[in-house]
Amino acid sequence: MDGDLTLNWTPLAGPTNNGPGKNPANGTALATRTKTLRKRPDLYRVLLLNDDYTPMEFVVHVLMRFFNKNEEQATQIMLHVHHNGVGECGTYTFEIAETKVTQVMDFARENQHPLQCVMEKK
Ligand code: TYC
Fold it and tell me: Atom 2 in ligand 1: which residue has the minimum CA distance?
């Protein structure tokens, strides 16, 4: 499976082996266990970019609707983007970040605003 590390380990043969196979050093096969260790997923920041045309209220609405911000948090982030050119909406795994970007871009386009949303690896 992608993103997994697979570790095969075989219990040591010999008199102390009384593991799952219970048959050490007597010509029969030892059982081999496979353990799958899941890697921490890569994380991505979802960013909003400033522009001169998208209404402030629309950006606040986007942040509340797609990034689960309350009105105060959304207003702070929107003003940060307005003043600094870019700002963070949240951090997600790849698929969720990609979905948020698509949702925001589709919603902006439907409403004929030039708002841009991008993701970047952390
Ligand atoms: N700069 C926009 C305005 O003055 C507001 C705005 C904020 C637009 C954040 C985009 O990501 C954005 N109406």
Answer: 52
